[in-house]
Structure formats: C-alpha cells, structure tokens
Amino acid sequence: xxxxxxxxxxxxxxxxxxxxxxxxxxxxxxxxxxxxxxxxxxxxxxxxxxxxxxxxxxxxxxxxxxxxxxxxxxxxxxxxxxxxxxxxxxxxxxxxxxxxxxxxxxxxxxxxxxxxxxxxxxxxxxxxxxxxxxxxxxxxxxxxxxxxxxxxxxxxxxxxxxxxxxxxxxxxxxxxxxxxx
Length: 181
Description:
By secondary structure, the protein is α+β, with helices and mostly antiparallel strands. It has one domain: Aminopeptidase (3-Layer(aba) Sandwich), CATH 3.40.630.30. It is about 30% helix and about 30% strand. It has six helices and ten strands, in the order ββαααβββαβαββββα. The strands form two sheets. Strands 1-2-3-4-5-6-10-7 form an eight-stranded mixed sheet, sandwiched between helices. Strands 8-9 form a two-stranded antiparallel sheet. α4 (about 105-120) links the parallel β5 (about 90-95) and β6 (about 125-135). The longest helix has 16 residues, at about 105-120.
C-alpha cells in the first residue's frame, strides 16, 4: 500500500536500499539519544546488524509500518501504528525520522497527517495515542502541532535525568474528527 501526500509518501513495500539506510541511522548518536535516552550510545557493527536482519520475525496483527519517502523518493524514516484495539477503536502511533538533516522541514507533520487520515478514515479508529519522553522536544512539538492533547505523565523505567531533563513518559491522545463534531 502506498499513501501519497504533497511532501511525503508512505509505503509498506520494502526497497533493497532500506536496510542500508537503517544501518546508517542506527549509527547516528543524536537519533539514538531520542530513541533510547537511558541507554549509552553504542554503534552497531555490520555483523550484529546483518544477524538481526536474518532473525525470523513474526508479523504482529495489531501493528503496521510504512517507510517514509520524500515526494522525490528519498527514504527518510518510518511511521507505524501498534497496540491496535479494534473493539475500543484505538491504536498507538510512532514516527522516526533519524537523520537530522530531515528535521524541521515538515516531513513529520506530513507523514502523521497521512497516517491519521488512514487510521481515522479507512480503519475508522476513534482515538490515536502516542507516548514519548519528556526530553524528546521534537516529538512533543510535533504532537502538539498535529492536534494531540497531553493526557498524562508516568515514571520511566529508570529514575534519572538525561541532559538535564527528567526522564518521564508523556502520553498523548487525539480523537477522530468525526467524534469532535
């Protein structure tokens, strides 16, 4: 499935070059800080990476991932939903644009708008949720820009401060436009 927008394209078909992009991204220290703030950065070796690619992974029926490309076809990250609860009409979303040169250009907003449209219109979800941590200012700004409301905070798995930021989870929610009316 391909979902096209003005600035980005979401695709769930893999390209041969996707794994090379992922290997490069996993070795970006700044992105890893936002992904796992409580873990010290350790670059991944080619051998470890290749071994991980060869592991058999069972598809999770409550989740789906799309690769994010720019409108010109450059692969820049991924979005996903997970924790789908069809009875409640809810799911969590995630987004990752690892390369700092893609930050602040509207790609994240465009990708989430496409994902929201799909989840609210095609899947008929009633609520989309997201969780990040207090120090992930980019995700927190994106959540607010896209209409998420902060619904609460909870302690992280380890009580510490990262780069002067308290390490807490921040929970967000956005309701379907059909419910807001």
